[in-house]
Amino acid sequence: MRDTSCKTGYRRIKLSALSILLIVLPLLGGCGAEKKETPPAPAVQPVILEYWTPFSGGDNIFMTRLVEQFNKEHQDIRIDQINSRLDDYYSRLRTAILSGNAPDLAVIHATNLPQFVQNGYIESLDGLAADTGLDWGQFSTKIAESTVYGGAHYAVPLDTHTLVLYYNKKYLRAAGLLDAADKPVIGRGEQGFTAFLQKLKQSVPPGVAPLALPSTRIDSVWLWWSLYNQIEGGGVFYNPDGTQAVFNNKASLQALEFVNSLYQRELIPPGINDAFKLFYDGEAAVLITGVWGTGAFEKAEKLELGVVPVPVIYDHPAVWGDSHTLAIPAQSEMSTEKRKAAMAFARWAVEHGVMWAEAGHVPSSRKVVESRAYSALKFRSDYANTANSVVYWPRNMKQWSINEEIIRQFERMIYKEQSPAQALQQAVDSINLQLKK
Amino acid sequence: MRLKSFRGWFRNLALARKLILINVVFIVLPLGLMGYFAFARFTETTERKVGDYQLQTLKQLTLNIDTYMNELNRLTVMPYQYPKVTDYLATKRAPGEPLTLDEISGLNSFVTQVFLNGRVDILGVSLYGTGGASYVVMPESQYVTTYKLDENVSWLNKFKGHYGQPVYVATHDLRSSGGNVYQAFSIVRELRSFDDGATLGYIVIDVDPKFIREILSKVTLDPQELLYITDDSGNLVTGKDHGIPQGVADGSSGRTGEGVSHVKSGGEGLLVAHVTSEVTGWTTVGVVPVSGLMKDTEVLRTYLILIGVICVGLALLLYVFIAYRITQPLRKLSRLMRSVERGDLSQAFPVSGTDEVGLLGHSFNGMIAKLSELGYLLYETEIREKDAQIAALQSKINPHFLYNTLGSISMYAELEGSPEIITMSNNLSKLLRYSLSGRKEHVTLQDELDHVGGYMAIQQMRYEERIQFTMNIEPSLLDCEVIPLMIQPLVENAINHALDQGVGRGVITLTAGSSNQVLTITVEDDGIGMNAEALEALRLHLRNTEELGGRSGNGLLNVHRRIVLHYGEEYGLSLESMPYQGFKAVLTLPVIHHQGIAREDDGVA
Predict the structure, then answer these.
(1) What are the tens digits of pLDDT across the range B42-68?
(2) Sign of dihedral through CA atoms B47, B48, B51, B52?
(3) B555 to chain A nearest CA, in Å?
């Protein structure tokens, strides 16, 4: 009997040992299973591009939307937009390129391309365009040519922007200056335009500007350049070999004197700083500024908006214009991935030109201009043709600072410190001094 | 009482179990306690270390932000280097009054310098003069001169007693005329004239909090962390995540300096570290769920428990094995001892070493050897004694004298013509000769039957017709070896049972048969038999009495013991009887055919 009890004791212990094993084994198993659980693969790190823009009209919000939309559609790319004032933008961009902190992608005005093409500050894009399937043929000839230097494309044009004439229908209607199609009735020549403004001035309430144009900055220079180019034989800036400025001529003076007369007769009230805001707030009847205002103005409540091209005051249509282009500043350590991503964005932005056109710009791609979506946009088609009569600034590496010199002289003229002839002469003299350096 | 019963229980526990129990108490308990204390200490240390680490990280973070803020702060001092700006701020102006070309260029170049000297994240620069002059540059728009300083703006009264220190304003919305809304924090400085100490105006620089957010985003305390910066009244400057738990937000406005605290929020423990910057007065707060921090400790705990359970389990298994292995020889020994107790002295303990158990086994074997030796000696002595008794008997009555006397009686009877006497004396002579025929160990069944036949011839003469004796023997068994004088006592017993105590006739049957190599010799009578009790008593007597050779009435026992001694326990005499239905004695022996064919003649020479 004792014997068997011992044996059952053994068995009992064997059983309990087995049960311990049974408890431990699943734990071990559980442990193993836990390890097998691979952590979810981290989302692909997107290529991050720093993207600099100089938008200070009403158009930045549209660029922001464009970038947001792009980021949403491209999980592998993230565009970080940094917007600066146009006033400081190029100074900042130049410093950044020289100090090796250049952004991966930047908007550069076509006028400004020469200073960045020199010394290879921005990259030639032909190879990249071929790689990413960007077709240069989709752009209108004029705008495509504006990006070609030495046979190579250096930037992807986003748009054409020109001066247009915005008007508040409320004031024009009150002055009886609207035709049946709600277009302004403007007489021919200098007299016609002056009379139009005179009539407006008599009609608008006090404090409302007949024509709004800032007293400072480049706006008056744009108007002068447009009008100077309308004159037969006008529009000459440099001598043929580009060594001297020669715009102190009769046609130029005629155009400038007409511009100046608008200020002196106070058809453009003195001391206007922010003409854009003035018109936006319904405190101006007419505004001559770039197409970039359309998107903002059409949303303004106090404004009954109308847009027409800048009237032909002289011999033929001509209007100042420029292009926003996308360029890749040269960086020593920029990866192919980043370049491709930058190009992908450029291509996408061109193809989605309608989004950008909502700001007011004329899209660079012919296909977009001809698209149903674009023609469905109000106002834009009213001035889409001005892209054909656009006059860029001449190509010169120093054109931006040369323009700043003209601005300075014109500001002094507007503030009655000198005559139009003096202003032209002063500008030409000081520009020639710059060109000699 | 319970302790006592436990002690009793423990004392009676098998040795192996005692060992296992002690082992469990002395291994599992200390191990468990050690593990528990080690883990508790580790947890505590980890929590403190994590708190310290968090605080250090926040300090570093705050230092980085302070450096950046100092850099921005330098920009607010710039108006002092631009007399045109301070002059402009000092002028008395109606709102919207146009600026001169000179003022415009002066202010514009100043603002441009601020933008260019600053970083790309400067959104706006505003100058406010106490005399109504203003120059405000907001994102996406031209400068504006019509802004008037809002008298109710919160930072305005903070400059009292500030001695030229700037004020940092928490993040707020900045609305551009283009429609975009920017997030910006601001640095505000009071500008004063050196000559008369009067306040000239204020400069406000609006900055995108992007850079601070970037610094924050580079800090990782934990995947579930919450990192944000608030100003002294609890307004958010920027945060990695905007959902601030209630419990944390409540206490945030009162926090200054630096420290780590525990907060309960929504049932979850949070470790909150905060550092207040001396430059900006902003408080950087890092919130980490304690559970997140303790993830590692939980893993450790799991492993500790797992490894502990495995180790203890293995140790227990091993110990159980060892305990049983050690006590196994002891148990075997005790088993052997019990069989020795029952009289089996053929056991031996397999000694496999010279340890205590080996020695014990050795002594046990020695003891057994001694015991069997003693037993044998006793047996021999007994036999010698018997021999002596017989020799004495034989010497008392000289058998030859008896034989010769009986021969003479037979001769006289023949002369007298009395055949009964002749038969009786001849048979008696044969009986005597067989009984006293020296020391023969074995005889054949035939010899034994002849003897019984002679005996019965005499008895039948005595009882005449009252006895009927029949023999029924398998002829093949006649040469089987049997023990001499084995059957006669049974027959004698049967005659006693069948006749002496009853009147009338008796039938005695002697049968011999074999099956399975067992020779069975049965003697039956038809006498009065025995009741169950008497029979059982007799059987018990047969089984248990080992004393050999009783005087009288012990004939059956004698026969039984001799067979057992000779052939082993499985053979012997068994009895069956029922009252008034006779008595049956059955002898069982092994079937052993006699080797020497020639029957030894029992010559009494």
Answers:
(1) 888 887 888 888 889 889 989 999 998
(2) negative
(3) 39
Name the residue in chain B with its Cα closest to that of A34: B299
pLDDT tens track for B308-340: 888 888 888 888 888 888 888 888 888 888 888
Least CB–CB distance from A20: residue in B20, B99, B313 = B313
Across A415-424, B192-201, B259-268, B476-485, least confident range: B259-268
List CB contacts of B541: < 8 A, sequence separation 6 or more. B557
Smallest Cα distance from B328 to chain A, Å = 10
**Contact (Cβ atoms closer than 8 angstroms) between residue A230 and residue A251:** no
Of the candidates B99, B201, B605, the residue with the CA atom closest to the CA atom of residue A215? B99
Of B574 and A29, which is predicted with more confidence?
Answer: B574
The CA distance from A385 to A389, in Å, is: 8
Q: Measure the CA angle with vertex B260, ends B258 and B264; round to 5°.
A: 135
Identify from A3, A88, A299 which residue to disrupt to test chain B contact, counting B C-beta atoms within 10 A and taking the largest count.
A88
Number of cross-chain residue pairs from A and B with Cβ atoms under 8 Å apart: 111
Rg for chain A (alpha carbons), in Å? 32
Residue in chain A closest to B177 (alpha carbons) equals: A58
Give contacts of B324 with chain A, Cβ < 8 Å: 10, 13
What's the mean pLDDT in B560-573? 84
B309/A27 Cβ within 8 A: yes
Domain boundary assignment for chain A: 47-158+323-387, 161-321+398-436
Stated pTM of the model = 0.64
**Would you state the structure tokens that stand for residue B332, as one six-digit string?**
């075997």
Secondary structure, 3-state, B347-408: CCCCCCCCCHHHHHHHHHHHHHHHHHHHHHHHHHHHHHHHHHHHHHHHHHCCHHHHHHHHHH
Residue A230 near residue A313 (C-beta atoms within 8 A): yes
Q: Is the ipTM of this complex over 0.85?
A: no
CATH number assigned to the domain with residue range A161-321+398-436, chosen from the 4 options 3.65.10.10, 3.40.109.10, 3.40.190.10, 3.40.50.1000: 3.40.190.10
- List the single best residue of B180, B214, B337 to mutate versus A (max A Cβ within 10 A): B180
pLDDT digits (tens, 9 = 90+) for A120-177: 899 999 988 988 889 999 998 888 888 999 999 999 999 999 999 999 999 999 999 9
CATH class of A47-158+323-387: alpha beta
C-alpha to C-alpha distance for B334 and B356, rounded to whole angstroms: 15
Beta carbons of B306 and A84 less than 8 Å apart: no
Show the tokens assigned to A269. 């009230």
Contact B410, B425 (CB under 8 A): yes
Q: Output the CA–CA distances (angstroms, integers) from residue B285 to B57, B185, B251, B267, B487, in the order listed.
A: 11, 18, 11, 20, 117
